[in-house]
Amino acid sequence: MNHQVQFDAELIRRYDVTGPRYTSYPTAVEFQPASPETYLRHVRQSNADGKPLSLYIHVPFCEKLCFYCACNKVVTKRHDKAPPYLDALFAEMALQGEALDAGRPVEQLHFGGGTPTFLDDAQLQSVMDTLNRHFNMLDDERREYAIEIDPRTTDPARIRALAGMGLNRISLGVQDVEEKVQRAVNRLQPVELTAAIVEAARESGYQSVSMDLIYGLPLQTADSFARTLETVVAMKPDRLAVYNYAHLPHLFKPQRRIQEADLPSAEEKLVILQHTIEYLTDQGYVYIGMDHFALPDDELVKAQERGELQRNFQGYSTHGHCDMLGLGVSAIGFIDNYYAQNHKNLEDYQQALAEGQLAVHKGYACDEDDSIRRGVIQEIMCHHRLRYDWVEQQYGLDMQTYFATELQALQPLAEDGLITLTDNGFTVTNRGRILLRHVAMVFDRYLQQRRAASFSKVI
Ligand code: SF4
Predict the structure, then answer these.
(1) Distance from the alpha carbon of residue 115 to the mean position of ligand 1, in angstroms
(2) What domain range is 296 assigned to?
(3) Segments of 313-435 assigned E as strands
(4) pLDDT at 243 over 90
(5) How far apart are CA 117 and CA 167, in angstroms?
(6) Which atom in ligand 1 lies closest to the alpha carbon of residue 113?
(7) Which of 60, 63, 327, 413 is deepest in the core (most CB within 10 A)?
């Protein structure tokens, strides 16, 4: 696969509209009120296929608030909040585990947050022990067990302890290494802390270290972010995600603590993005798509080359063949073509489980059209192309009839140079790779319906 990516400021300016990141299709805004019974029915039905499992565990607590944060979290220094949460989590594991056939291997595990390392080692060990009781956890090479690490609440000894518990991948929140930027977002994290964690991870045999950065934060400049990139690349993370900061203080209260005047201008952000892409690809990183870069021997790159890359709630994944269970407050799962999301509120989540019920609050049963469009959108987001004969064989449809409107809507994208059209499909161009989601949006039925609805309102 061609991994080249070309920065075209003019094209990016022209397509400067927000759109879904397609970690699911349909996206979470389409989820409807749902009951635990419906979810459990889907879980039981999934046993017929007996796919391997991918578990996501959400730990919502953070000791300090990062002002840019848009995650579902509970900011508290009170560690006595953890035991009741773990009680609920363990009850949820028991209920879900009971509904699943015992032999289904857990190939993928991801602790996310919030801050998973808000839990101490004994608590994390008890999570792993409980998982072992209720699921078929693996202890061999097939497992991809990851945890998001906050270097401010972790030290090398903890990294070694986590490896001993079976975790073999870590993901580090870094965002920016410059002290003035860190102060402006209330996240002081000396680079030595991060470097010590990376070193400990290497020594402890972790298979992959990934890091998150954010551009567009207050007091960042093109020069300062270039220094951040250099510092981070010197640590040789296997994967790097470089996210764009979206300042939406009306939606995310913590962001009101950020001074708008301190934010880099749209033009400066474009310079930062251009340098990021050029610098990282120069340093040997492969652009996977949607803010993600990886070293050439990383599993993500290999999966993309094999045509097996998938997109899920954690971004890109090599485990698209798994059924996904979401455990913990606000967690989302996808099983038997059914999306299920737990209560977003901590009290509601704990209350449901205290009453012996799963905390599923919203859900969505995908119909045939959703599955087709999900496949098409995944192909665009992961492999930057679409072959019409592949879609026709895969889903038994006639592309020209089924997607007549969408094929027409692709024309302007081709004229603008985002895609190259052929008789049997299209490929996203090197210039279009940064705008992948704009190509995928053409096939999003719900987005088109919403646009049509707002259009008729204007009329
Ligand atoms: S960015 Fe992460 S660590 Fe910071 S408040 Fe949000 S969830 Fe917590």
Answers:
(1) 7
(2) 27-327
(3) 315-317, 323-327, 332-335, 338-342, 360-365, 385-387, 419-422, 425-428
(4) yes
(5) 13
(6) 7
(7) 60
Mean pLDDT, the chain, rounded, equals: 95
Continuous segment of H or E residues that includes residue 388: helix 388-395
- Of 274, 300, 327, the position where a domain reaches its end is 327
Helices (H), 255-367: 266-282, 299-306, 346-354
Comparing 211 with 459, the larger pLDDT belongs to 211
Structure tokens at 323: 């059924």
**Residue minimizing CA distance to atom 1 of ligand 1:** 69
Q: Please, what sign has the CA dihedral across residues 218, 265, 177, 113?
A: positive
Closest CA to 270 of 13, 4, 73, 448: 13
Only one residue has tokens 């098409």, namely 376
Residue 150 CA to ligand 1 center (angstroms) comes to 9
270 in a domain, yes or no?
Answer: yes
Closest C-alpha to ligand 1, atom 6 = 69
Tell me the three state secondary structure of residue 123. Answer: helix
Ligand 1 site-directed mutation target among 64, 65, 66, most atoms within 8 Å of CB: 66
Q: Of the residues 307, 327, 347, which one is the last residue of a structural domain?
A: 327
* The token pair that represents 206 in the structure block: 């972790």
Q: How far apart are CA 125 and CA 133, in angstroms?
A: 12
Per-residue pLDDT band at 453 (split at 50, 70, 90):
low
* Together in a domain, 43 and 90: yes
Q: Both 165 and 36 in a single domain?
A: yes
| pLDDT of 449 over the 90 cut | no
What's the pLDDT band for 458 if we cut at 50, 70, 90?
very low
Q: Which of 147, 55, 57, 58 has its CA nearest to residue 107?
A: 55
- pLDDT value at 456 more than 60: no
Mapped onto helix, strand or coil, the DSSP state of residue 115 is coil
| Segment 26-73, tens digit of pLDDT | 999 999 999 999 999 999 999 999 999 999 999 999 999 999 999 889
- DSSP 3-state of 455: helix
The pLDDT value given to residue 375: 97
Q: What pLDDT shows up at residue 459?
A: 33
Percent of the chain clearing pLDDT 70 (strictly above): 98
pLDDT at 454: 60
Residues 224 and 308 grouped into a single domain: yes
Query: How far is Cα 298 from Cα 379, in angstroms, rounded to an integer?
Result: 20
* Percent over 90 (pLDDT), the chain: 90
